[in-house]
Fold this sequence. Notes:
Blueprint: H1 7-17, E1 22-25, H2 28-34, E2 40-42, H3 43-59, E3 67-71, H4 76-86, E4 91-94, H5 101-111, E5 115-118, H6 123-126, E6 133-135, E7 154-158, E8 166-170, H7 172-183, E9 197-200, H8 207-220, E10 223-226, H9 235-242, E11 246-250, H10 252-258, E12 273-277, H11 281-291, E13 295-299, E14 310-311, E15 323-325, E16 334-339, E17 345-346, E18 350-358, H12 375-381, E19 382-383, E20 386-395, E21 401-406, E22 410-413, E23 416-419, H13 420-428, E24 433-443, E25 447-456, H14 463-476, E26 485-488, H15 502-505, E27 518-520, H16 522-531
Parallel strand pairs: 1-10, 3-4, 3-5, 5-6, 9-10, 9-11, 11-12, 12-13, 25-26
Antiparallel strand pairs: 1-2, 7-8, 13-14, 15-21, 16-17, 16-18, 18-20, 19-20, 20-21, 22-23, 24-25, 26-27
Helix pairs in contact: 1-3, 3-4, 7-8, 10-11
Amino acid sequence: MTRAASPAALLAxxxxxFGASALFVIPAAVADLWGEARRTWTYAEAxxxxxxxxxxxxxxxxxPGHRVALLxxxxxxxxxxxxALNGLGVCVVPLNPDAAADELAWILAHSDAGLIVTLxxxxxxxxxxxxxxxxxxDTPPAVPAAGDGGQHCALIYTSGTxxxxxxxxxxxxxxxxxxxxxxxxxxxxxxxxxxxxxxTPMPCFHVNAMGNSFMGMLASGGAQxxxxxxxxxQWWDTAIETGATCFHYLGVMPAMLLNLxxxxxxxxxxxxxxxxxxxxxDNHAAFEARFGVPLIEGWAMTETGxxxxxxxxxxxxxxxxxxIGRADRPGPKMEVRLIDGLDRxxxxxxxxxxxxxxxxxxxxxxxxxxxLKDPVATDAAWQDGWLRTxxxxxxxxxxxxxxxxxxxxxxxxxxxxxxxxxxxxxLASHPDVAQVVVVALPDPVREEEVMxxxxxxxxxxxxxxxxxxxxxxxxxxxxxxxPGLVMFRDALPVTSTQKMRRVSATAFAANPLTDPRAHDFRxxxxxxxxxxxxxxxxAEEDRADP
Length: 546
């Protein structure tokens, strides 16, 4: 069979082979939450819906050069609209349902999206943003001919070290590389044709759910089990109910599951493996021993996709050492090198910034196609034919790579990348803030928490100001970006040229909870998370913020 060239073409191809098999599965509780009458979509049913949607979009004039924003939560509708548009050469722009209005407005303007597809429950969230809105199930409005916007599969925004998220341009080849990688993996994560059911709580506006998870299942004839978000207390019951055979995880998930009391269902599931990254070394072996599931650690970025993803297989996994594997893993051929602070290549054992590229004549093959409207950032990412990841790793004596830390100024909270400069910009706009720096506070559950260190204007310090700054951020940022702690200082460390000395500023996060000038809003921040849940969703004690 000829290899499909796009996700939409792959669905059409697989519907001929796995037509009666499930492509999407949602648990009963999620179906009730969403008001869905059905819980399973077969390949044939999904393809029929995609063809119907595609015909409607085609009749409205959509084609190459158009960009359409999707705000469809984690529902099957996200994938159905994406694949319908992909078949017409339309680029989709997935949106974060937790984003604030200012954030949505900026992404919509920057991406030149001409339409927002969303749910009736979220109509008010996107009203007044200056972009036409299409509710799922309605007929698309007619659109003018597209300009020269390029033809990409998706435009996914990811936080970096700049104040605003950058739009990663992702091609069809980028998504197909995810499929190629997953199909090449050895046991225990080898995908059995037509037999796998992958349980993932990852959000659809992230590349993991759209790329790694979905493309792996689509390419192998498997099913994607979709949940609204991670529910620790329901996790094992959901796995048993849906017949899940594998799952994807973030490091916070094993920690939360280990915190649950032992129960009979700890080993009553049919899960063969978990694939992800960031599990705490103290939790890795303990999780595998208790639940009987190997956690296969790895590494990837939105920019690298499946072309340069790393996995700790094959070979020794070095459990509990943050081992992310080696470059000569199965899948698309890639190369890795480590460089020191002077950009000199490190040979043999040692620590350095990891740089990656596709092997062969085109180092960008299968990776992202650059940052939209930002050639400077694109050139900074690609240097001398290598993609600078900004991540520091250690190469061990056997050549295995172990993740150490991030060189980039990005706070990693529960799987979300948060640009410190973006949060600083919001805080600096408050009239009572003279100076501010945002740093990462180590967190035993969420990996890192956002902490703001503020020099207030004269005479304004106190609990009232700290709460005002918290509210100010909550009004302008997605809940996960809001500082969980606000600390006041008389001055901030700066260089001789008056630039912020960020390395010195991180010392503030050493033990802030004992500092009398620090104010802890982490509980209130969790309250913000609950407030962003749609009004139709029931309150649940186990609703977790992974």
